[in-house]
Specification:
With 245 residues, this protein is of the alpha/beta class. The chain contains nine helices and twelve strands. It folds into two domains: 178 residues, 3-Layer(aba) Sandwich (Rossmann fold); 62 residues, N-terminal domain of TfIIb, CATH 2.20.25. It is 26% helix and 34% strand. The longest helix has 14 residues. It comes from Oricola cellulosilytica.
Length: 245
């Protein structure tokens, strides 16, 4: 599951500028409520876990050391337990009131058995009355069609490099539901560029539901976006929210 976009420090430095705080984190922050503990699987650069740790015990797990290096540099990061590990196999000697997996990290799991393994990890760490939530883009929405250089070209503001142009170019393979996409960053001032080729899986809702069920979990709600609207055909997102069976 190693992806240069996240494992290479030269590319990880762009993540926060290219992925600002959004409605997924707002939802999880509200969902946490009075939860005394939270596990963030695929925590990336740790923005959500660090905020959640202000009033509760928080643990962030990610397989990419470069992302965790960014996380550890955040103000307040000392409140979080950071663990470099694979969400498919990690086992901790504790359970949590809330387990989250945001930023479409679930889609980095390219095989059905990988998705099933992560759902089993969630079940193994969830308190009996605990809650889990994660997101995956709905293949019916076909978001990858908008991932062309012309439509994704934008300029982000890097604190050291200044303006950096970013573009994405993607291709979908219907045989395995996998999108392969190129991410290219180019520093406007120096002309230096960084690139990575990545893959993510666009699983239909029935496949996500099967992985959840096989792990001994159940979804109380299926949402179609992070505003809490119910899932319906053609929704942008597939977001299950639930607990242990």
């Amino acid at each position: 599951m190693s992806d240069k976009l996240f494992s290479d420090p030269e590319l990880a430095q762009f993540y926060d500028q290219d992925n600002r705080w959004d409605s997924d984190k707002d939802f999880c922050l509200k969902l946490a409520g009075t939860a005394s503990s939270v596990l963030d699987l695929g925590c990336g650069t740790g923005e959500l876990a660090t905020v959640l740790s202000r009033t509760r015990r928080a643990t962030g797990v990610d397989p990419a050391a470069a992302m965790l290096d960014v996380a550890r540099g955040r103000q307040g990061s000392d409140r979080v337990q950071w663990i470099e590990a694979d969400a498919r196999s990690v086992r901790l000697a504790e359970r949590f009131d809330l387990i989250v997996m945001t930023g479409h990290a679930f889609q980095c799991l390219l095989e059905p058995e990988d998705q099933a393994s992560v759902c089993k990890t969630i079940a193994a760490h969830l308190e009996p009355e605990g809650t889990f939530v994660f997101d995956s883009r709905n293949p019916e929405f076909e978001e990858w069609r908008n991932w062309t250089p012309e439509q994704t070209r934008t300029v982000i503001d890097h604190p050291v490099l200044g303006p950096v142009e970013r573009l994405i170019d993607a291709a979908f393979n219907p045989d395995n539901q996998i999108v392969t996409y190129l991410t290219l960053y180019t520093a406007v001032r120096s002309g230096r560029s960084w690139r990575a080729s990545s893959q993510i899986r666009f699983s239909p809702k029935e496949d996500v539901a099967a992985a959840i069920s096989a792990a001994g979990l159940h979804a109380d709600r299926w949402m179609g976006d992070w505003n809490g609207n119910p899932f319906k055909p053609g929704a942008r997102e597939i977001i299950p929210l639930g607990g242990l069976v």
